[in-house]
Amino acid sequence: MLFGYPISATEENWLHECLYEILQLIHTCVETGKPLPKWPELIPEAHRDILQGRPALRNKLNAYEKALAKLGIKKRKQVLQALNDQNEIAFLLCCQHNCEAINDLPKTIRKPVMDLFAYAFDILTGLGVRDSQYKAIYEVMRHRVCPFCGCEPFKALGSRREALDHYLLESKYPFAASNLRNLVPMCHTCNSGYKLSQDMLYRNDGTRRKSFDPYNCTGTRLSLEQSQPFAGTVTPIGQLPRWQIEFEPNTEEVLTWNQVFHIRERYQNDVLDAEFKTWLRDFNSWCKSAKFLPTSNQELLDAINRYATLYELMGISERAFLKAAVFRMLHTHCEQGNQQLISFLMSRVNPGQTNLLQAP
Q: Mean pLDDT of all residues in the chain?
């Protein structure tokens, strides 16, 4: 992904922590034979007033306790281990830890677990936790766009929030379904168009893979330097470059990101191919407005460099990083003496300059 979210946005994780404490107590009582505290004393005191008026929560906890009590000690330990393991989000994403999925657990405990944590996720909205998390993220974002694609703007505070994605699938890892460490805002295209039910921990062939940690990601830089002008698709308005999209650093996390969200494909089809000719016209307009009409190779290089720098300074917003990468690539090829490209660009920005300039 292009940048990460602040870990501070996960601080209001009290509902998940409360449920975790309750389930730990239920396991202890079942193991020791001690009676479970009555409702609402079962709820940690700090959150008792907020949750005691939710009979649905009480019923789902009771269903979990009853299903757990019917299991043998070995199976109960397995369930408790899954509770712990599925919430080791950071270690799971970097392949330093593993966990069992819900279908690995005894069949009788699966529905109580799914029901309990689906309910917990649902009430995050009414408890104001989702709004607080989104606000904490939105207010510190330098570029208010989806970090998984960099193309879709995030909605302003007070508007409808972006989808809150279960980064580790709720259907496979339900013990993490209400854990803010596992819940990430994501644009509709990334969430509903590409990620869907893909498992961030496993490839389609069942092997483990590393994935970006959305709350511990320093970002990824895109480069188009190895792209080739006049070598791509021929369109009615001319031949496009053959794009070679590279990411730095080139890690296993980048590979997973690209596989899940189809990043290279989307950048090429939806942005680079679609916008290349428009961006050349924009460059022409900028040269005219700045009264910067190059008449030599060096002046053309200076113009492209200034234009690329302008968009590099804009960062991720408005797809500026992709536009900057395009013009940085064009600058590189012109600097290397690509006469066809130099003549082509010169004809765009200064049609009156008819002589073919020699490459520097």
A: 95
